[in-house]
Design goal:
Blueprint (H helix, E strand, L loop, with lengths): L1 H5 L1 H11 L9 H5 L6 H19 L1 H11 L16 H11 L6 E8 L6 E8 L4 E7 L2 H19 L3
Antiparallel strand pairs: 1-2, 2-3
Helix pairs in contact: 2-4, 4-5, 6-7
């Protein structure tokens, strides 16, 4: 249930309700590339807002804010758990086997600055495995590489 409440889609909905896009300041490049409308940026801004209230006014004020922000969001134990993103799933797989976290590195980028494609490698040194993924952002490339790594691991470790 908690995962559903803090996932990007839920936070993005709250950001839209609060009209956060009109209140955040972004760099010129981010504004030109659609940053004020990007769900990840708006969701992060809501998280930052909650954190700022907590740091400035304490737990009780932050709790009151969270309760107000979520008052129109149905909360019940039967809420569908948000699927784990590939990076989180890979991290949990490795930690469950007491292995080090994977290393990600950008192998290359293609395209104009406002519309780049990132080629990212995910490496698990302990297993001598490397997989690559492509995405429209560094993070998306990392997610794609982690997904490819999970596929490889699942194929190698079938019971």
């Amino acid at each position: 249930m908690r995962a559903s409440l803090v996932r990007q889609e839920t936070l993005h909905r709250i950001a839209l309700d609060l009209q956060v896009a009109d209140l955040i300041r972004l760099g010129e490049g981010e504004v030109r590339s659609g940053g004020p409308r990007r769900p990840s940026i708006l969701a992060d801004a809501v998280e930052a807002l909650i954190g700022a209230v907590y740091l400035d006014a304490g737990f009780a004020a932050a709790e009151a804010l969270v309760r107000r922000l979520y008052r129109d969001i149905e909360i019940n134990p039967q809420m569908q758990a948000a699927a784990k993103d590939p990076k989180t799933a890979l991290q949990e797989w490795l930690q469950g086997r007491r292995m080090k976290l994977p290393a990600y590195r950008v192998v290359g980028t293609v395209g104009a600055a406002h519309q780049q494609t990132f080629d990212v490698e995910c490496e698990i040194a302990e297993l001598d495995l490397r997989e690559r993924g492509i995405g429209g952002s560094r993070r998306a490339g990392e997610q794609a590489a982690a997904a490819a790594m999970l596929t490889t691991l699942q194929a190698q470790h079938r019971p």
